[in-house]
Design brief:
215 residues, alpha+beta, 8-stranded antiparallel beta sheet, 6 helices
Length: 215
């Protein structure tokens, strides 16, 4: 495909059909990891998924965060998120929530661990939302005084009512939001995708979204 071109980026490699994760590479090379695709975006499973809803929306162009995505395609990303939510609600009667640890350009205090923009999409739970608001001081979007901190990083969150929230420079450790979702929901498994790729879980995610498409 050769849309992205940063050879050191795992997501760029995945976009171009390469993965260095055992067992996942076969899915990636055969493009069976792609749940949905447009000219600008892919929907793919999160490696080490927290449950069978856990996918990521990623831009094909390498940027650190969604705030760096061109304005003319940002609206497309929101439409994809809404379609994912509609699909899951119809199929499972659950809503999705969405969050991003937007990587900073100078130093990353966002809690992310990959310097390629990606939005996590996962089942809404009240326990996670309660834990999230306890740990992070969000401001609601839109707000005239809000600007995204692209230097130090930020956390963005969209709840099950499509309200959006932002916290700049949140001073979070790597994979923090994954850990918070795991611990608040008492998940029996592992939150650390680097240590537990959980390819069986990936296959369940692909099955969950098997009839999803973008028109």
């Amino acid at each position: 495909m050769n849309i992205s071109c940063k050879s050191t980026c795992g997501i760029c490699n995945e976009i171009n059909g390469i993965s260095f994760i055992d067992r996942y590479n076969k899915l990636v090379s055969e493009r069976k990891n792609i749940i949905a695709e447009t000219d600008n975006f892919l929907v793919v499973p999160s490696v080490g998924p927290l449950n069978d809803s856990h996918v990521m929306l990623v831009p094909k162009k390498h940027v650190n965060s969604f705030n760096a995505v061109e304005d003319n395609i940002k609206s497309e990303s929101r439409k994809i998120l809404h379609k994912l939510n509609e699909f899951i609600k119809e199929k499972t009667n659950n809503s999705l929530i969405f969050f991003e640890s937007g990587a900073g350009e100078n130093i990353d205090h966002s809690g992310g661990c990959i310097f390629h923009a990606h939005i996590h999409c996962v089942y809404y739970t009240k326990d996670f939302e309660t834990a999230l608001n306890k740990e992070i001081k969000f401001s609601k979007i839109p707000s005239k005084h809000l600007t995204y901190d692209i230097k130090n990083g930020y956390v963005w969150y969209m709840n099950n009512k499509h309200d959006e929230f932002l916290c700049n420079n949140p001073l979070l450790p790597s994979q923090f939001l994954r850990y918070l979702y795991y611990s608040s929901n008492l998940i029996n498994g592992n939150w650390n995708w680097r240590r537990d790729n959980n390819i069986n879980g990936v296959l369940k995610v692909i099955e969950r979204y098997s009839c999803f498409y973008l028109s």
